[in-house]
Each structure stands twice: as structure tokens, then as C-alpha cells.
Amino acid sequence: MTIGSFIPPQRTLMGPGPSDIYPQVLQALSRPTIGHLDPLFIGMMDELKQLLQYAFQTQNPFTIAVSAPGSAGMEACFVNLVEPGDTVIVCRNGVFGDRMRENVERCGGIAVMVDNAWGEPVDPALVAEALTAHPEASIVAFVHAETSTGALSDAEAIAKLARQHDCLTIVDAVTSLGGVPLLVDEWQLDAVYSGSQKCLSCVPGLSPLTFSARAIEKIQARKTPAQSWFLDQSLVLGYWSGEGKRSYHHTAPVNSLYALHEALVLLKNEGLEQAWQRHRDMHQTLRAGLEALGITFVVDEAHRLPQLNAVYIPEGVDDAAIRARLLNDYNLEIGAGLGALAGKAWRIGLMGYAARRENVALCLRALETCLK
Ligand SMILES: *Cc1c(COP(=O)(O)O)cnc(C)c1O
């Protein structure tokens, strides 16, 4: 057997991520690799930090990209903020809340679960109850945009309750960043992580991360070192803080960081508000077309994510066969249902560069033909 170059097809990615990537981002990726301690690269990293601060709407000096996917951003929050014996209120309304529980337990923490049904947002009243019942809790963790179900939770309200009980917040913003309003400073969120491959439409493998001053204080007051050397952010701090004192921690994923820089420049040029509006507009167009095909949504209108449309698979339709036809005949990827929604729902992503009229039109046309 001879193995040659791998040439992937040109797909249209309308699943839960990775999303369609901006052509400019792919170009940035192929620029010459330079040393990660090269002064020009360090200058690029400083710009990247400012661009991330804009995307997160924060002034937090600790705003970086973890050199690994969104799951590593999640882990970075838990291993740094949770110490053995800490009680963490974990909100679970889909797959990712349950991963948060696993993270808490692996850090030696005690997870107190607040459960909402799949497809529902986190109910702040239940969070308030848990906080009252567990005065020992020091952290509230929740998913802002639950990609497994397409539900958006009220991050501002949950964070306010957490503060009233002197708790920090860990917020999963992997799917929300760049797609729906996320105001880290105004809502006073403490540890927020995201991913490069959802609404930022960058290549997978990086996790934007920001810590508030309160989060940094808790990290600096730790009695035990974080159990992960690579994700110990007290070590990474020196690497990302410029001012001539950058030192080697790990080899930065140089070209991926060019790509993220480019994706964020595109977001800045479009403007965050405009990007949020574009996601809403494309969602409305998709929704009208899907409803005309008799397809219904999993999540109530008030809590629906524009960038992740979870819809019920029509009665009698072969889930896998339709998705295979979309992929083979139209080069179109949509997402399967996950967990409780496996086999019952499809997840149609309109993330970043995928939130365009052509994509919505392709998806509706392809679905209509395949469902006939
Ligand atoms: C995709 C996703 C993750 C994980 O990100 P990876 O880049 O796949 O590791 C975490 N949380 C949510 C809500 C996600 O949608």
C-alpha cells in the first residue's frame, strides 16, 4: 500500500463544530513558521490578547488562548480553581455540564448537581436553592450555550447569584463566544473558556480563556499545586505576559495562533454586535425554512441558540441515512443528536462563517430533497 497526501473534500460544515473556516484564516495558517520567542511573534501574541479581550468584552489582563481544544480550556478552569475538598455547584442541562462534574470530581472536589431537562436552560431559582443549601460552596459552574441541546442560559443572572453567595463562576462559553452576547466584565464572570472552532470559525485546537482578578487570587492562594503541570496557569502567566519577560513554557502552536489572530481580526472588523445580529438573522431564515418543511425545534423560542439549531427528526425518517446523503450528495455536514437526543434530533450549526445565506439555502434545499 502506498500512502500519498491527504486531500480532504470541500465540505460545508453546519454541525456543532468545527464550523466552516474563513478562507483568510486558512491562508494565515500557511504563513511561514517563526520561532515562538521571536520578537515579532511576541508582538503578535500581544495583539492576540487584545483581540481576545475584545471578543470576551473584558479588561482582564489574564486573557489567553490555551494551546489545546475547548476541553482543555474547561480542564484549565477546574484544575486551577478547584482544590481538594472544595464544593462546586455544577449546573447540568446537557452533555457538557456532566463533563464539568467529572472535572470537579477528578480535582478532588465535591460536585453538587443542579439539574434541568435536556433542551431547557439552567433555572436560576434552582441555583439559588443549591447555594442556600450549600453555604460551603465556593464555585458555581455552568454552560452558557449548551451545544448538545441548543439552549442558552442566563449567565448574568447565575453569576449574580453566585456573587451574592461569595462564589466564583466557571463559565463554558465554547459555543457562545462570537455568536451571542457574552459580556465577561459587565456580568462579572470569573473563569470563562471557549473554543477556536465554533463561532470564531478558526481551526480546532485552541481554547480562549480569561480569568478575573478574583479567580487569579484564588489560584494564588492555593494550598496545593494544580495537579496538571501543563494546564497550571500560574506557570503560563509568565509565558503570555509580554514586557520582555516571556520565557519558555511549551512551544506555542505558532501557525494556529496566526489563524486565531486572523479570525479575531475578522470579528473585530465585522463588529461583535453585527456578528451577533448576523447569527440571529440567519437563524430566523433557517427556522422559517425548516418550519415550512414541518420540522420543529427542541428548545423553546425564548432560550434558543441562533448558532445551534436542535430540531426533531421527522417521524419515520432514517437519521443516519439522511445525514449520509447530505454528506455524500451535497458535501454538507449537519450534527447528529447527542446523549438523550441521539437518534431523536439533528443539530444544525450556523456558527461564524457558516452563518451565511448560501449555507442556509443549501441546507434547506438539500433537506427538502432528501426528505421527499
Ligand atoms: C465543543 C464544546 C466543548 C469542547 O470543545 P473541544 O474543542 O471539542 O474540546 C466544550 N463545551 C461546549 C459547550 C462545546 O460546544
From TrEMBL:
PROSITE patterns: AA_TRANSFER_CLASS_5. Gene3D superfamilies: Aspartate Aminotransferase, domain 1 (3.90.1150.10), Type I PLP-dependent aspartate aminotransferase-like (Major domain) (3.40.640.10). SUPFAM superfamilies: PLP-dependent transferases (SSF53383). CDD domains: AGAT_like. Coiled coil: none annotated. InterPro entries: Aminotrans_V_dom (IPR000192), Aminotrans_V_PyrdxlP_BS (IPR020578), PyrdxlP-dep_Trfase (IPR015424), PyrdxlP-dep_Trfase_major (IPR015421), PyrdxlP-dep_Trfase_small (IPR015422), SP_NH2Trfase/AEP_transaminase (IPR024169). Its cofactor is pyridoxal 5'-phosphate. Keywords: Aminotransferase, Pyridoxal phosphate, Transferase. PANTHER family: ALANINE--GLYOXYLATE AMINOTRANSFERASE, AMINOTRANSFERASE CLASS V. Belongs to the class-V pyridoxal-phosphate-dependent aminotransferase family. This is Alanine--glyoxylate aminotransferase. It comes from Photobacterium aphoticum.
